[in-house]
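Sample 3 of the quickstart, ligand MTE:
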Amino acid sequence: MLIRRRRGYEIPESQVTPEGFVVNRRALFGAGAALLPGVALAQQAAGVVPPLPEHQRNLRFRPERDITPEREATTYNNFYEFGTSKNIVREASRMPLRPWTIQVDGMVAKPATFGVDDLIRQLPIEERIYRLRCVEAWAMTVPWTGFQLSELLKLVEPQAGARYVSFTTASLPAVMPGLRQSWYPWPHVEGCTMEEAGNELAFMPVGMYGKPLQAQNGGPFRVVFPWKYGFKSGKSVVRITVTDRRPENFWFKIQPSEYGFWANVNPEVAHPRWSQATERLLGSGERVPTRLFNGYGEFVAGLYTNLQRERLWA
Ligand code: MTE
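Result:
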């Protein structure tokens, strides 16, 4: 078979956002109803997830790979709250995605609890195509819609002395059978430094493939650090805390010899039980070399120059 290698900036025609990709909110809700707060609130209370508002693709972040077929990215998941298999879509679909609030607290001048739709309205949302590399050595390339984490942090004004940000994800025993596995340290908590949180790549998706984020991928609201192994990208976030203490993250608590705090992608540092030199692409099944910082070194390498004594890669 003839395989033509595309250069980084070439996106196949089939993957260019069609002009009509952005659903017109009003058309869907009918006669401007989405603009009436009373109607929006009633719909939220009924669990209705509104379509994403109009937004554009940010071309600064080049995928340099084909976008993973939507079906693969939305049916092959890691979400241990719903079970340890990759096939948790049915279980996850029972999680109500509205109403949904995110508490932002800790060392901030203006702690607040935001409704996810208020954030979507208030913050500049855009689409970014990022590669995601799981520590298990599979990878996908996904068009996420969301906003920069730094924009959300600006709203709450972190205080001097704040060093870390932690993300607590949803813990809903009624719909999450995985929580019965009591040997896991629920709730799932992840974290990063303030510098990492301020990096332009740190992103908070509320959508994927032009649609609201589904539960199995971390709907309605998750975090994504594309230069780190996927386990750092916590799903279905309910609380963000700015702190001066390094958060003990979920996988570190379970197996500190295998999973650390930093977890930056590095093909040369093997997992204790497997190599990280290559990765399998969801969809095509092709095996390709893994890149340092998952290929995002130009954006993030500078964050780590003074941290060589830390265990940056696992
Ligand atoms: N977040 C929560 N709350 N629970 C999880 O089990 N798994 C992580 C991460 N975020 C996980 C999570 C892992 S290991 C990976 S690789 C990514 O989510 C997978 O995201 P995806 O299913 O959208 O591909």
